[in-house]
Specification:
Belongs to the sigma-70 factor family. ECF subfamily. With about 170 residues, this protein is mainly alpha-helical. About 75% of the residues lie in helices and about 0% in strands.
Amino acid sequence: MAGQTRDAEFTDYVASRAGWLRKVAYLLCSDWHRADDLVQETITKLYTNWSRASRVENLDGYARTVLVNTFLAEQRSPWRRWTRTGTAQPEQAWTAPDQDAVLDVRRALAALPPRQRATVVLRHYCDLTVEQTAEALGCSTGNVKSQTSRALDALRRTLTLRSMEGSR
């Protein structure tokens, strides 16, 4: 009976947060298929540690930390655990008021080093404080500030160059 309750709690949580986890994963890796893989691995890790995770005060923060750590571990690995088979599937189209600007920001974000990208996503998409981001990444607040500063400078340079190229 306790196992059924545990599974039901886990299923309810994942059903309610899977879309959000997928969006965060996409912002980290810039590929919907890889994002799905990251979310699946995160969900598997959450299930394995559900007895501990379900008692955490901020379950979303715990899940986000698992997701970011999974992404960063994959970036450090010399052997990428994902492979592509068959032909590439077309990405899902997402319409926005200014599609070109959205694509420019996504390309610029994808060009950042993984740690800087994770910092920007946590700070500006997930709206975490410097302290919360440091906790999620397992580093100091000073490191979060410097990584964020460098990332934002790189984004500004990249986006400024693209806008200058577009106005020619």
